[in-house]
Design goal:
By secondary structure, the chain is of the alpha+beta class. It has 14 helices and 16 strands. Bound molecules: adenosine-5'-diphosphate and magnesium ion (MG). One of its GO terms (molecular function) is ATP binding.
């Protein structure tokens, strides 16, 4: 049995305190939101948020008596698998410091309010207790459209979770904003996604501040990116917006983020839609041909080109010019910019930027080629980041296989399964008994 968590409203209350200890029985209510229908393209923006739709199933979960800290960790686990929480301001303080602005929202620095005692039974970082986080507040654009967009972003974050170079999901929250009901028929809600903080910002800003990268740094960056893409592609997910603004940096590691316009490879309609970002989108997208996961490989090539030269492969003053240059795909390698790099990294770059997607290597093949070449360098050999990218490519074969299996049985929806129950808080949490009652985005 599996309780669907993706976009399931989660509320909880403390039921009874255990007379013998300071543990409490809690009651959790999980109500999966029905997926709202997509409004017609010419329809007026809807004012009705999805929270007015009737609910189908509601799940009630009772816990065994647990300590408060363990209960908070359980809520966190549910949130990181896509359950929708309403207690953002109990968990985090959202500061006014903006970390970045994208097409879909603004990301702010947040501080955790959870004061958790250290867990007794794990040596791992206690994620719910990390002091600082990034909080992405989605723009307000109309209830149903926002809900459809965030549902998709959350779904892909939850599906792809666990890879060290893919942005993790800490939780999805919504709240009623003061004054936001003005002029609307029903209640209006504000959606937020909480993620780990990547303290060095995005690659675009890094290159603007520091100029082009040295070959070793660019190789480490690409090991991270290609390892992340290998994982996504194995899960049948195409990112569709690989670009410098969506690559975040922290502790010499690069992390792929913003799965806001990702799509499943098997979604034939999505694999024809012209989305992504001009300058990074490949010829097959700008010429409106059907495409596949190789669009991300091309995006990775544009990122490598940018990292090595601080210019994009198709520099045009207007959108029209960029698209024309992309469609032709005659990439220039100015010796003044690329002359100092090794032949092998230039060879990889040219392979990633191949016009014909069938000739472009897969993310995994590119990763392996880069690894073989880069691991000759002592700095890469010593780098723990480089090692984890390789380990992820090797280990995640089995993780992806398990994830694919559970996605098949669960219709792609991240759920809460018996396997996960074992993962949460083994001996102390065995008493849970579920009871059944166009650029589409230029972000
Ligand atoms: N976890 C994070 N840590 C630090 N900065 C972030 C984080 N997530 C996003 N940002 C910054 O915010 C910008 C916009 O975030 P993003 O998720 O790409 O939003 P959008 O979907 O609107 O493009 C990014 O380009 C980056 O500069
Ligand atoms: Mg973005």
């Amino acid at each position: 049995m599996s309780v669907p968590l993706l976009m399931a409203d989660l509320v909880h209350l403390a039921a009874t305190k255990s007379p013998e200890s300071d543990r409490t029985w809690y009651l959790l209510v999980l109500a999966p939101r029905p997926c709202p229908a997509k409004p017609a393209e010419d329809a007026e923006p809807s004012t009705e948020a999805g929270d007015l739709m009737p609910l189908n199933d509601v799940w009630l979960l009772y816990t065994a008596p647990v300590e408060h800290g363990d209960f908070l960790r359980l809520l966190f686990e549910f949130g990181s698998r896509g359950a929708l929480r309403w207690d953002l301001h109990d968990c985090y303080t959202v500061t006014e410091k903006s970390l970045g602005v994208g097409g879909c929202g603004t990301v702010y620095l947040g501080q955790s309010r959870m004061r958790l005692p250290a867990p007794k039974d794990t040596a791992k970082v206690d994620i719910p207790a990390v002091p600082q986080v990034a909080v992405k507040k989605l723009n307000k654009s109309g209830g149903v459209t926002e809900e459809i967009n965030i549902r998709s972003e959350i779904e892909f974050l939850a599906v792809a979770r666990g890879h060290p170079c893919i942005s993790a999901l800490f939780g999805v929250f919504c709240f009623h904003e003061v004054g936001s009901a003005e002029g609307r028929r029903g209640p209006s809600i504000r959606w937020t996604i909480v993620m780990p903080l990547y303290s060095e910002g995005d690659l675009f800003d890094y290159l603007a501040a520091n100029g082009a990268m040295k070959e070793t740094a660019a190789a480490t960056l690409m090991l991270c990116l290609l390892s992340a893409l290998t994982h996504l592609h194995r899960l049948g997910v195409v990112h569709r917006d690989v670009k410098a603004e969506n690559i975040l940096l922290a502790n010499n590691k690069a992390v792929l983020s913003d799965v806001g316009i990702a799509a499943f490879l098997k979604d034939e309609e999505a694999m024809q839609r012209r989305v992504g970002s001009p300058g990074y989108a490949p010829p097959e997208v700008v010429t409106d041909l059907p495409y596949d996961e190789k669009v991300d490989v091309f995006g990775a090539g544009a990122v490598l080109y940018f990292a090595l030269s601080n210019t994009l492969p198709f520099p045009g003053k207007t959108l029209k010019k960029v698209l024309e240059l992309t469609a032709r795909c005659k990439v220039k390698y100015d010796p003044a910019l690329f002359g100092d790099f090794s032949g092998s990294i230039i060879q990889l770059l040219k392979a990633l930027l191949q016009k014909d997607p069938t000739k472009r290597p897969s993310a995994k093949k590119s990763f392996k080629a880069l690894w073989t070449m880069a691991s000759q360098k002592p700095e890469i050999q010593r780098s723990s980041v480089a090692r984890i990218t390789l380990q992820a490519v090797d280990d995640f074969d089995s993780l992806a296989a398990t994830r694919l299996e559970s996605m098949k049985s669960n219709g792609h929806k991240p759920g809460w399964t018996a396997q996960m129950l074992a993962f949460i808080a083994r001996p102390r949490f065995t008493g849970v008994t579920p009871k059944k009652f166009s650029w589409g985005s230029e972000s």
